[in-house]
């Protein structure tokens, strides 16, 4: 036998046993986004490399070490998208969707990051992303967060995720804070781990979410970001918190939450769970009022979030007791003998047409009834519909309930739908 070829490390296949739950999640999310008036946008998976370098920031983890970048045949540098916001803004500018308009957009699709694969962290993973353009009012930040909270209810995980919230202020405020933080940390340089030492010159705010216990201890007495917030950001944050309070959304203000990408300002938030170990962030987002202009468009306020579908699916599998999916078919049609093929095809078509919510499987690989019934049992179908030569001659079928073991019944073909309807009406 020839040598087999395997999938790329960190890039998964999603098998027929996995996809029903994925579809269920995707449908719930799409339905919820639709109910809030969001529209889908689809962007390419590949973009030109400078888009990400400019949008995400040169000294972020993503751009420094996580991108899949390659030259195409014309020596142009391309990158498999590590996230969707940059491409969405690029598309919005390119097609004139953003100037002087409000847009509420969502997308779903694979993202690529060259990370060490582990549970909840892959090199190809999938995100649902949501981006709102043209609204500066904190009410939209609040509504986005409320929408995610609603989603967790839809997915049955509301009791297992917590909201972390912060404001990282304006660029100017962050610059001032950054200087104060660097100043303070330089006085404790020896205690810092290697990563934090390096970040002190490249991206010091990222030191705030260092996992190192000693670094965290030093940070306890460090200057606080909120003491450096500009008035506009402070006001924005107070209004956001007040709306969430009134609406009854619980959150924890975490001044160390800064998020990994450079483009954020003012509001940042994450939904985290303790049920997935180290990969606990299922959704993250925030405001990015400067990005559209930075990428060549007119200044446009913007806010959005992305959720990791693998982590959501893992969490649902972990905490939802009765998974709301049934991968089985409903009806399995067996037939044997001369002149049974066409009637079997017709019966299958008739049921699919008139009871469109049922899954009907027609046995297509021949063999005797014994073999066919084995397949029918294995399919998990409730009903087997049986057509032999005698039945066809008399325009009848036999229906057998495979799950209850009740007596099989013989019906005229014209009665099949009437017989099945009560079982599938509100299915
Ligand atoms: P983390 O801190 O876990 O690396 P991140 O801050 O890099 O996450 P974002 O860029 O905010 O992640 O992406 C939004 C969401 O996408 C994350 O909250 C997570 O659910 C998911 N995600 C990010 N990277 C991965 C990955 N490599 N594999 C699976 N899901 C991921
Ligand atoms: Mg990351």
Automatic annotation (TrEMBL):
Domain Aminoacyl-transfer RNA synthetases class-II family profile, chain residue ranges per copy: 1-324
Xref: SUPFAM superfamilies: Class II aaRS ABD-related, Class II aaRS and biotin synthetases
InterPro entries: aa-tRNA-synth_II (IPR006195), aa-tRNA-synth_II/BPL/LPL (IPR045864), Anticodon-bd (IPR004154), Anticodon-bd_dom_sf (IPR036621), His-tRNA-ligase (IPR015807), HisRS-like_core (IPR041715), HisRS/HisZ (IPR004516), HisRS_anticodon (IPR033656)
UniProt keyword annotations, A-Z: Aminoacyl-tRNA synthetase, ATP-binding, Cytoplasm, Ligase, Nucleotide-binding, Protein biosynthesis
Quaternary state and interactors: Homodimer.
GO cellular component, one term: cytoplasm
GO terms for biological process, alphabetical: histidyl-tRNA aminoacylation
Taxonomic source organism: Gallibacterium salpingitidis
Subcellular location: Cytoplasm
One function term, GO molecular function aspect: histidine-tRNA ligase activity
EC class of the enzyme, as a word: ligase
Binding site for L-histidine: 83-85, 113, 127, 131, 259, 263-264
Tagged with keyword Ligase: yes
Family classification: Belongs to the class-II aminoacyl-tRNA synthetase family.
Gene3D superfamilies, per the entry: Anticodon-binding domain, Bira Bifunctional Protein, Domain 2
Catalytic activities: tRNA(His) + L-histidine + ATP = L-histidyl-tRNA(His) + AMP + diphosphate + H(+)
PROSITE patterns noted in UniProt: AA_TRNA_LIGASE_II
EC number of this enzyme: 6.1.1.21
Name of the protein in its database record: Histidine--tRNA ligase
């Amino acid at each position: 036998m020839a040598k087999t070829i395997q999938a790329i490390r960190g890039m998964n296949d999603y098998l027929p046993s996995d996809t029903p739950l994925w579809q269920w999640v995707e449908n719930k999310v799409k339905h919820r986004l639709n109910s809030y008036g969001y529209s889908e946008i689809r962007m390419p998976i590949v973009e030109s490399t400078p888009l990400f370098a400019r949008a995400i920031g040169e000294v972020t983890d993503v751009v420094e070490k996580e991108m899949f970048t390659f030259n195409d045949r014309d020596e142009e540098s391309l990158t498999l998208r590590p996230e969707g916001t940059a491409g969405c803004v690029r598309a919005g500018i390119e097609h004139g969707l953003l100037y002087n308009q409000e847009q509420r957009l969502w997308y779903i699709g694979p993202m690529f990051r060259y990370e060490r694969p582990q549970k909840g962290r892959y090199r190809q993973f999938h995100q649902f992303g949501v981006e709102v353009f043209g609204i500066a009012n904190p009410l939209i930040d609040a509504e986005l967060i409320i929408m995610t909270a609603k989603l967790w209810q839809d997915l049955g995980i509301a009791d297992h995720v917590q909201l972390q919230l912060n404001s990282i202020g304006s660029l100017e405020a962050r610059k001032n804070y950054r200087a104060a933080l660097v100043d303070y940390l330089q006085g404790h340089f020896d205690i810092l781990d290697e990563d934090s030492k390096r970040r002190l010159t490249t991206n010091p705010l990222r030191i705030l979410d260092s996992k190192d216990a000693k670094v965290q201890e030093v940070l306890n007495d460090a200057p606080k970001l909120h003491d450096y917030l500009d008035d506009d950001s402070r006001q924005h944050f107070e209004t956001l918190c007040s709306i969430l309070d009134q609406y009854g959304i619980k959150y924890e203000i975490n001044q160390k939450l800064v998020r990994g990408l450079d483009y954020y300002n003012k509001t940042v938030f994450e939904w985290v769970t303790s049920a997935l170990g180290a990969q606990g962030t299922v959704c993250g987002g925030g405001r990015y009022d400067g990005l559209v202009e930075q990428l060549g468009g007119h200044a446009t306020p913007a806010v959005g979030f992305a959720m990791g579908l693998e982590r959501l699916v893992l969490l649902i599998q972990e905490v939802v007791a009765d998974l709301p999916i049934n991968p089985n078919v409903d009806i399995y049609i067996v037939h044997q003998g001369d002149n049974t093929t066409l009637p079997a095809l017709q019966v299958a078509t008739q049921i699919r047409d008139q009871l469109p919510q049922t899954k009907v499987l027609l046995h297509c690989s021949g063999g005797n009834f014994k073999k066919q019934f084995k397949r029918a049992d294995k399919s998990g179908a409730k009903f087997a519909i049986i057509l032999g030569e005698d039945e066809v001659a008399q325009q009848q079928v036999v229906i057998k309930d495979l799950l209850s073991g009740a007596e099989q019944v013989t019906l005229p073909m014209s009665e099949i739908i009437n017989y099945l309807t009560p079982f599938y009406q509100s299915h």
